[in-house]
Design goal:
about 325 residues
């Protein structure tokens, strides 16, 4: 349920209403907009007499939300959420008209590799560095990352370039190791790892949540709800392609997810064209298409030697290819 307050309501009136609603064992989320204040009521709202609430002098209107996702719902929070990543001069904003490109290798392999790639993507306009330290792999015999060493190498790359770092977490047991990571990624395979999502909701850290391989948009938003219901509202959604019967590309990139999600939620939506297509030559057209469709950012895999990459070399761009893609994307952004 959401309650929209009339303009001119005093702070004391608003607080008295919030206190009353909380006395009904409801959570109250306050969204302060430029022209209106929205109270989102979380919990068993059947206890609330909607006619009584609507009749209060300070209430403009009251609406029940039928969708199961409340915190992530745009009606709950009409203004776009802007997620801030990093700090100081290197702070990056995504959402609310702010666009960013995240770039870097699928896996961190060595200090020289990650720093070389970090410097290259920064020079081309990327404002965040991605790199896998823990890698979920289909086969237990494939390279699964450098783990703690990989995180340390990411930190060194951040020191060398100033780029905030983005990397994937696979278990809540590893959370202490990720407290110095600027943007924690939840991969497609863990989108419905609800215990992990709840733990991530208890920290004050931006979360990049990727859509699962065969999950609906509603399921994606419900996973975001797990994080947000615990108090962490700094969530970025990522469309990275879904499985289908077609084998020509790694996945099918659902570009329609961008405008649909923008209607349903206030959370920023970015796109991963690398995992969606699985082929480096398709990354450029899909990056441009995602940008034109209104994505708030891109996450692109870049490797300085893709042929010898330990993970996903086929979908990784060289720094030179990434520079071309980034240039074209920024040019397109000028006309959107």
């Amino acid at each position: 349920m959401i309650a929209v307050l009339k303009q001119g309501v005093t702070e004391a009136q608003k607080q008295n209403l919030i206190n009353w609603l909380k006395s009904l064992n409801l959570g109250v989320h306050v969204s302060e907009g430029e022209y209106q204040t929205v109270l989102g009521l979380i919990g068993d709202t059947s206890k609330v007499d909607i006619d009584l609430l609507s009749g209060l002098d300070i209430i403009d209107n009251v609406t029940r939300i039928s969708e199961p996702f409340k915190c992530a719902n745009r009606r709950f929070h009409p203004q776009d959420t802007v997620v801030e990543i990093g700090s100081g001069d290197n702070k990056v904003k995504i959402g609310g008209g702010n666009f960013a490109i995240i770039a870097g290798p699928c896996s961190v392999e060595s200090e020289s590799q990650i720093i070389e790639v970090a410097k290259a993507v920064k020079a081309s306009g990327a404002t965040l560095l991605r790199g896998g330290a823990f890698k979920p792999r289909t086969s237990p015999y494939d390279f699964q990352g450098l783990h703690g060493e990989g995180l340390e190498l990411l930190r060194k790359a951040r020191e060398a370039t100033g780029l905030p770092i983005v990397t994937e977490i696979m278990s809540a047991a590893h959370l202490d190791m990720f407290m110095d990571v600027d943007l924690i990624q939840v991969g497609a395979r863990n989108m419905q790892n609800f215990e992990l999502l709840k733990e991530l909701g208890k920290i004050n850290k931006p979360i990049l949540l990727k859509r699962g391989l065969a999950n609906t948009l509603k399921e994606l938003l419900m996973s975001a709800e797990y994080i947000m219901s615990e108090g962490n509202e700094n969530v970025i959604l990522c469309e990275r392609g879904i499985r289908s019967f077609d084998t020509y590309t790694r996945n099918v990139l659902d570009l329609s997810a961008i405008p649909v999600l923008q209607e349903l939620t206030h959370l920023p939506v970015i796109v991963d064209p690398s995992h969606a297509t699985g082929k480096s030559r398709l990354v450029k057209p899909m990056s441009l298409a995602a940008t034109a469709a209104g994505a708030a950012g891109l996450i692109i895999e870049v490797h300085n030697d893709p042929i010898h990459a330990l993970c996903d070399g086929a979908q990784s761009l060289t720094p030179e290819q990434f520079d071309d893609v980034a240039r074209k994307v920024f040019q397109l952004r000028e006309f959107i």
